Amino acid sequence: MRTFCSTVLAASALFLGATHAVQAAEPITLTLGGRLREFFYVADQTNRPAERLNATGVISDVRVAFQGRTVLDNGITVRAFARIYAVGRFNRTLDEAFAEVSTGVGKFRIGETEGVNARLLGDTVPEAFLSRDEELLDQALVPRTGITVRDAFSFRRFTGNAPGVAYETPEFGSLKLGVAYHPSLSPFAGGSPIDKRFAPSNGVDVSGAYAGDFAGGTYRIGAGYFHSNPSLLRIDGNTAFNVTAGVTYGGWEVSGGYMDVSPTSGLDETAWTVGALYAIGPFRISANFMRATREAVRTGRRRERLDRESLQGSYKLAPGVTLGVAGFRADQTDAAGASWDGAGFLSGIKLQF
Fold first, then answer.
1. Alpha-carbon distances, residue 101 vs 98, 105, 206 (angstroms)
2. Quick one: how far is CA 59 from the chain centroid?
3. pLDDT tens for residues 24-55?
4. Distance between CA atoms of 87 and 184, rounded to whole angstroms?
């Protein structure tokens, strides 16, 4: 909470300083928003000897957001944003908090934010009910490998929402570029809470996205590269690159992505995914598949593997209210070559305000 308060105060100081230097063309608007999402799941999966996993569970995700925004008389937009977990997740309260200045030469952002790669590339595959920041299946099915499932296709796996600065260019013929710098990486994304010399630092993310249209549909492509300085006693820091591509036509959307990761551990990882969605009126249905492999040892002779599929459906009950279901299945192969199977069903409700 202390980090949250400090960030909000800093954002407010920037906000007031900007509006004092240049007269605001419109009054500052303050808004309150958020979301409430409740899920219930049932899962059946391989147990270890004497292991008795709970087959059911409830997952809650409640966040509250605050925003202040104004447009100055020179056309510059200044925004301060903060979002917190009302129901704590991952032993922290703050989700995002940043100040943003949008001008004719681009958008500048400073604070604790998801990163330019995740913003520009967007969702890797379309999902009818869940979204990229709702990686719930790793809670329903116990991970048996070291493969990264949360943020598997964006650089948030390294930075989390660690403090940083970012710049995004204006669109040049449907092309948009961005760069972000994080002095220290998030402790929730592999940092060391004991001695930060043993954690990578100075993460740089360079990304770009292009979107276009054709008769009856649209298409998009995106790519990014990430690098961080090595930690103490490491040869190199984290490096990664990712690509995404997608197309829409009528009520259909099909897309996919690929990511190659060389972390400081030396256990290289690759992952790819494809998915399709069909929407008609308030109904949406989607199917997607993901495969990922990871070196079990630095020699690369043994690899862990994960195959996962999901089928989802949703119904928009009212503006901001969505009901949905999802069926999922996963096959995991651990470092010893043992196979772990699991499958389940999830249902829930989402409220956005």
1. 10, 10, 19
2. 18
3. 667 889 999 999 999 999 999 999 888 888 88
4. 26
